[in-house]
Design brief:
The structure is a homodimer. Chain A has about 240 residues and is of the alpha/beta class. Chain A has a single domain, classed as Alpha/Beta hydrolase fold, catalytic domain (Rossmann fold), CATH 3.40.50. Chain A contains 7 helices and 9 strands. Chain A has a 9-stranded mixed β-sheet, with helices on both faces. Chain A is globular, with a radius of gyration of 17 Å. At the A-B interface, α6, β9 and α7 of A face α6, β9 and α7 of B.
């Protein structure tokens, strides 16, 4: 898939360029120093517009450490065509939660597996295009977002050499098995009191990763309460592994 | 108890002074900048001589961050009078482990509670003496060593404002209850595959701490395999809370 830049602006020392990859919107942030290692910025399926303030803050931190950063829209999110099946499953999930029912394995699978199956090849296509740009070198790290996408990418994409994963969403049993195939260094963030996450499942997942170097960083607070110092720890993880 | 210096030497920019506090040997390391905040260096009951290489390395890192560091010998260790009851319990523990038996609550209590009861007032006496020295300011942090001593100190000693604890040894049920009284910021290190430690008990202990700010940092490897980057994370924790 070809990558075409559609707009650009300078944010101090960082060049922000929007692009389309085929029909998929995305954004690339590059620091003054080039070629730079690349961090892929994962995000939840809420749309790039809504996620922009957090993404640009992460990209600016990455640039300050000498990294380029890039992200693409997830299938069914933002300006991409609606994905009715996914909307239906999300509605089922909200209904189950509101009713105080346990979230079934069927809902978790339906919510996550089709998204992973669609998104992962798109991120790999983005990687192909981005790594052919003169200002992007390697190596590549993956950070945050839907953890199941991060696990699959870490397991199947050899150009990703380190990943920072946020244990903040349900992980299907099938992806749990893929976690055993992951061998790259991992930095795993866990919010100890995440209301939407099963703590024991997150600890079991951390245990399952096949990586020899993996660290779990658990902090207090709910899903969106990751403290600033935890973000700094993740930044140092990438500096250790991508430089 | 009065503190008397018995010897001193310079290690680059760090002044290392041995002292006796009453009959308890100890060491104080001070950086060039004074008065400095103080980090109390906990250690396992193996004797200060045997622990010296690791303690001086920790003290030099602390000094590089602008902290003084101090430690005292534990009851029954090193050059202090033998503590026959403690030796007996430790022999019981080794026997149980060699035989592959589970370590009973009775052994854990007998191993730990008398040590905590004796050691904590000694560390508080050391704090009294050290804080009256002109080159020691505040605030005070506590780092490492027997976690039950750290928990009791964090719970009862208001001059300690932050603690880095190593979840690496058995914690009696009574100390577990004291953990609920701890409210200072905590940085807890856990070696995921620590052969001498019960991982689930360590996770339950982390959950029990009453502190609003507490972070768990789990890394791969056994009891003595704490990676270097984990030590650096602990150092940044103290810089956040003691400066």
């Amino acid at each position: 898939m070809a990558l075409h830049f559609t707009s650009e602006q300078r944010l101090d020392d960082v060049l922000e360029r929007n692009f389309v990859l085929g029909e998929i919107p995305g954004t690339l942030w590059t620091p003054a120093s080039a070629p730079a290692p690349l961090i892929l910025l994962g995000h939840p399926p809420l749309g790039l517009h809504r996620m922009y303030p957090r993404l640009v803050a992460r990209a600016q931190h990455a640039a300050a450490d000498g990294f380029a950063a890039a992200t693409i829209e997830l299938p069914g999110s933002g300006d991409r065509p609606r994905w009715l099946a996914a909307q239906q499953v999300r509605a089922d999930l909200h209904r189950a939660r509101k009713a105080g029912e346990p979230v079934s394995d069927e809902i978790i699978d339906a919510l996550t597996l089709p998204l992973v199956d669609k998104a992962v090849p798109e991120w790999q296509a983005a990687l192909n295009a981005l790594l052919s740009l003169p200002d992007i070198g390697g190596p590549v790290g993956y950070s945050g977002g839907v953890i199941s996408i991060g696990i699959r990418l870490a397991a199947v994409e050899p150009r990703i050499v380190a990943a920072c994963l946020f244990a903040g969403s349900f992980v299907p049993r099938a992806i749990f098995e893929e976690a055993r195939q992951v061998t790259i260094p991992l930095h795993v963030l866990l919010q100890w009191d995440d209301e939407g996450n099963d703590r024991q499942a997150a600890l079991d997942l951390f245990d399952a990763f096949g990586s020899k170097e993996k660290s779990l960083h658990a902090n207090m607070g709910g899903h969106t309460g990751v403290p600033q110092f935890a973000g700094e720890g993740a930044a140092r993880f990438f500096t250790r592994h991508l430089k």
